Amino acid sequence: MGDGQLRVGLVGTGPWATTVHAPGLADHPGTTLAAVWARRADAAKELADAHGAIGTDQLDELFSQVDALAFAVPPAVQAELAVKAAEAGKHLILEKPIAADLAGAQRLADAVAANDVASLVMLTLRFSTQTREWLEGITRAGGWHGGGARWLSGALLGGRYATSAWRQDASGGALADIGPHAFDLLDAALGRITDVLAAHRGEDGLWQLLLAHEGGATSTATLSMHLPVQPTVVEIAVYGEHGYRTLGRKAGTAGESYTALLDDFAAMIASGTTTHPCDVRRGLHLSSIIERARELAE
Questions:
Q1: Predicted local confidence at residue 169, as pLDDT
Q2: Which partner for 54 in 35, 252, 254, 285 could form a disulfide, CB atoms 3.0-4.6 Å apart?
């Protein structure tokens, strides 16, 4: 770390890397964007040059320039490269899902634990002020018996993510991309998800799930990225002894959430802390839910 700033490397040059990661890392007072890696050297150089960083297609060069890495690549690629990064002693900002399957998620979690590095998963909604305040109120009140999540969008019908191969794959889609956000918030509000009681995937990519929570609560999740819905519908709800409470998603909060994530990430590393409610173990838990849903939907 130089001048008190964490040197972070960015893995990937896609839309999310360009619009959220790169400017967020470059502008945050606790971090500096030191390097950008991509399989295409020209793509890495273009994004790096825009932020005064080094562009490279060589992992060894990337690792030599940074203290930590932020990932914005498909799950299978992330799982492979993040294990190598953890083994090199680099702290990690991980995308969700953290791997393409549960076995890959377990290997990554094991590598993080074995090498004592810090990790955070990009569960952006969890880092927004609105969500934190809502969850604090839910936890304080208690007495919730059930809930549900609805996340409906047309993101895979057109736009910047419509050509994403892993999202368009039957094993990916809404379950793997937006499912982690929904499951994380239901889990945080109602208690740890202990089982997927039922799961169905329609031919149009619409997922419907029934979840069991520690303590006896149940919840449902309805997820789609193939519906002509504008704007995207995002609603998390709980109900019980104190009535019915909902949480939506405010537009334009990704950058603010990423800043809050970087606040926590920099503080973890400065204090030598490797545990956090949204660390790699959270990613592993969410991967187990995805894997169980896939099994039931087959």
A1: 79
A2: 35
